[in-house]
Specification:
The chain is 35% helix and 20% strand. By secondary structure, the protein is α+β, with helices and mostly antiparallel strands. It binds 2-oxoglutaric acid (AKG).
Length: 253
């Protein structure tokens, strides 16, 4: 798995989660999403395809929050994260991905890091900087995500750069050669580097939880919302609290 990740920038584990594990968290995510839709109608109308801060203490009842924290802090996720993130892993956050309200809404190629800086030299530096990985947990069978393999360590071709920046007559949603579309099924886990070039594939009423883990690097973790982390009591109740402890320690440093 480690070699596969190093080579391509992503790794797919089919059937990683049991039905019992998913049954614990799906109702939690559905309730969160209903509330989010009520509170963000204009944003949803205008094309939103994701929400965030699912573990925020004001977003869930204590028992629902515990169910989600337990899911994140399982032994098997921790072991995989430890294998793939040697300088971590620390918990960075959560997101939920769903379809846009209007089905004609186009997707967009991007590297997550491009939203932190427009500067090309800074974007290039991110290829060798702190590691951030999405752990995608689809709750329904869906079209998945399309990735440009190996772009976690190589810079864009001219065509890729023009596409993700909508330059030279290209649109952000135009197809790119040599991409890899990865349809996902309930139970699968897809891990991919946040900084590789990727786009979501909408449709099928997708509903996927992304858990984001990263290097234990205070620079990467400075935007973590403390209210999204477990408090002492919640931390002590977790079977494997390390991933949250790493974040808390980095925030204190
Ligand atoms: O699934 C999507 O819509 C895109 C995913 C994405 O952009 C991300 O996880 O950073």
């Amino acid at each position: 798995m480690q070699d596969e990740y190093q080579e391509n920038g992503f790794v797919l584990a089919r059937g990683f989660f049991s039905e019992a594990e998913l049954t614990e968290i799906e109702p939690v995510l559905r309730v969160f999403h209903e509330n989010w839709l009520n509170d963000n109608q204009a944003f949803y109308e205008n094309g939103a395809i994701n929400s965030a801060y699912i573990t925020h203490k004001d977003a869930l009842t204590p028992s629902r929050r515990t169910a989600l924290l337990d899911f994140i802090a399982t032994d098997k996720l921790l072991k995989l994260a430890q294998m793939l993130i040697p300088n971590g892993p620390a918990f960075m956050g959560t997101q939920l991905f769903f379809d846009p309200k209007h089905s004609d809404r186009k997707n967009y190629w991007h590297r997550d890091g491009q939203y932190n800086s427009d500067d090309i030299s800074e974007q290039k530096a991110m290829l060798t900087g702190g590691l951030v990985l999405h752990f995608r947990v689809p709750l329904v069978d869906e079209r998945g995500i399309e990735l440009m393999p190996r772009t976690h360590f190589r810079w864009d071709t001219d065509l890729e750069y023009a596409t993700r920046t909508a330059a030279d007559g290209r649109n952000v949603f135009d197809d790119l050669p040599d991409s890899k579309a990865i349809p996902l099924n309930r139970g699968d886990l897809l891990v991919f580097n946040a900084n590789m070039i990727h786009r979501g594939l909408y449709g099928g009423n997708r509903f996927a939880l992304d858990i984001i883990f990263c290097d234990t690097d205070p620079e990467l973790l400075r935007f973590v919302q403390p209210d999204c982390l477990p408090d002492m009591q919640e931390l002590n109740a977790l079977a494997h609290p390390q991933i949250f402890q790493a974040t808390l320690q980095a925030l204190r440093s």
